Automatic annotation (TrEMBL):
Involved in oxygen transport from the lung to the various peripheral tissues. One of its GO terms (molecular function) is heme binding. Signal peptide: none annotated. Keywords: Heme, Iron, Metal-binding, Oxygen transport, Transport. The keyword Zinc does not apply. Belongs to the globin family. PROSITE patterns: GLOBIN. This is superoxide dismutase. Residues 5-150 form the Globin domain. The gene is Cygb1. It catalyses: Fe(III)-heme b-[protein] + nitric oxide + H2O = Fe(II)-heme b-[protein] + nitrite + 2 H(+); Fe(II)-heme b-[protein] + nitric oxide + O2 = Fe(III)-heme b-[protein] + nitrate; 2 superoxide + 2 H(+) = H2O2 + O2; H2O2 + AH2 = A + 2 H2O. Its EC number is 1.15.1.1. It is an enzyme of class 1 (oxidoreductase). InterPro entries: Globin, Globin-like_sf, Globin/Proto, Globin_lamprey/hagfish.
Length: 154
């Protein structure tokens, strides 16, 4: 049974939107993280090796920032591939949420920040329709991650 509130048509258009931005996973993932660090400097505190970096330029060049940007996009890509299979979707979301809650102790509000920046980037690059068709997916992702955090006693 599906925990997802997306119709088949919504899944298809969300995948189409995601593919556009995922083609350049490393660059776009990096842009998203650099924006997060710049607009929400407190988020840098989770990444001890990013602390000394002040300029967006410096961050963009960093192999560690680029590597993590790519990682974030790969994880979302795994979720997007399983939007029509809640068991498989949760198989990606649950361990990821648990790790961020218990090991990394990352505030779950940061997932929302990342999702909002992805939507913003989609709109800038591909227009409002692209953003709109992915919005429900980001809500699903954040809702499920928040549930994992609650179960972990966050």
């Amino acid at each position: 049974s599906s925990t997802m509130s997306l119709s088949e048509a919504e899944v298809q258009s969300a995948r189409g939107a995601w593919e556009k931005i995922y083609v350049d996973a490393e660059d776009n993932g990096t842009t998203v993280l650099v924006r997060m660090f710049t607009e929400h400097p407190d988020t840098k505190s989770y990444f001890t090796h990013f602390k000394g970096m002040d300029s967006a330029e410096e961050m963009k060049q960093s192999d560690q920032v680029r590597g993590h940007g790519k990682k974030v996009f790969s994880a979302i890509n795994d979720m997007v591939q399983h939007l029509d299979n809640s068991e498989a979707f949760l198989g990606v979301v649950n361990p990821l949420g648990k790790k961020h809650a218990t090991q990394l102790k990352i505030d779950p509000k940061n997932f929302r920040i990342i999702c909002d920046i992805i939507l913003q980037l989609m709109e800038e690059k591909f227009g409002g329709d692209c953003k709109a068709s992915f919005e429900k997916v980001t809500n699903e992702i954040c809702t499920h991650l928040n549930n994992v955090y609650k179960e972990a006693g966050w």
